[in-house]
Amino acid sequence: MDIPPLAGKIAALSLGAVPVSYALNHVSALSHPLGVALMSALILGLFFVAIYSLSRREIYYDPLYAVFAAFAFTSVVDLLIALQEDGYMVGFMEFYTEGEPYLRTAHGVFICYWDGIVHYLLYLAMASAIRSRKRYRNLGLYWLGSFVMSILVFLPGNILGKYSSEIRPAFFLTIPYVLVPCWAGLSVFNQSRVPTCCTPNVVQEEQRKGLLQRPADLALVIYLILAGFFTLFRGLVVLDCPTDACFVYIYQYEPYLRDPVAYPKVQMLVYMFYTLPFYGLAAYALIFPGCSWLPDWALVFAGAIGQAQFSHMGASMHLRTPFTYRVPDDTWACFFICNLLYALGPHLLAYRCLQWPAFFQRLSPSPLALHKKQN
């Protein structure tokens, strides 16, 4: 990927959020929540017009170029929010956090960091790929999983947690954030897959191997089973399971699960209802050949769990989380290792699926078999 497209129009326009945010922060009219919402919508509209006028060729080639450009702008805004809330800068985003006070929570700060760094780089990379007429499907699937996971946790957490009484007009700007990824996800999934160089003989040879002959897959299956139990256990913990093990865990290992902001509870329930079934299906796909859906969904879930674990681990130890809900010092190492492995495993699964896809490919019937079937 060449550097000029990567650091071109989108990077320059999105970094324009810095002076714009500083200027708007000193406009007294924006102290009102409705003013924040209206001005934010106006700025995004003007930004769309600017992108369309400067990049019509790219947008006609792939409309997602405009989506990535707009979201790159909001990523810079989120990074400014995170840096300000952690005290690294002042005088930029007070006007916006007044309209969305839940961004001042530890969870809000860390989703802003993730959006401002990881998502921003993904937007630049995908926009650069569009300008270069290259494929970006894998990057798009990872981004889709990450983005959807952040929305699935953040929006219900805002409504159900202690900030539910402070929902303000700016909150409704998140509606496009729910609708646009649905359209973008369908567009990414409909793109053609990157062709593999696996010959039918290689595919047949790989699919004849049992699980014991594939030690890496065996290790992944064991990991998925253990991660599934861990997912179920933490789901039961936030559902107030009365067993001693759940009581000990929530008070001595992850007291953040009791935080009234509701984000950790929602996160564990999303894990239990969405990630746990995927772990079971992924283990099945590693045992039985021909499950061609796994590489795509492994990328989606890698992005989702990467974002979720970054936010959950960071918020569990952040100073904005009350001391009684932070990870105790004597169990910090156990908490960190378990959660890091929980985040790393899906990425290893996605890497395995992309690098050695032969086991998951479907074999087309041979001409002889087709001839016998016709007769």
Q: Any key phrases for this structure?
A:
single chain, 375 residues, mainly alpha, 70% helix
Can you give a write-up of this model?
Belongs to the TM6SF family. It comes from Hipposideros armiger. One of its GO terms (cellular component) is endoplasmic reticulum membrane. The protein has 17 helices and no strands. With 375 residues, the protein is mainly alpha-helical. α6 runs antiparallel to α8, α8 (106-131) packs antiparallel against α15 and α12 (215-238) packs across α16 (332-355). It is flat, with a radius of gyration of 23 Å. The model is unreliable at 1-7 and 367-371 (pLDDT under 50).
Describe the structure in brief:
One of its GO terms (biological process) is regulation of lipid metabolic process. About 70% of the residues lie in helices and about 0% in strands.
Weakly predicted, low-confidence segments: 1-7, 367-371
> Structural class of the secondary elements?
mainly alpha
Main pleated sheet: none
Helical percentage: over 70%
Q: Got a strand count?
A: 0
Report mean pLDDT, rounded to a whole number.
83
- How many helices? 17
Specify Rg, calculated over alpha carbons.
23 Å
Which word captures the global form?
flat
Family: Belongs to the TM6SF family.
Domain EXPERA: 61-185, 216-350
Protein name: Transmembrane 6 superfamily member 2
Main location: membrane
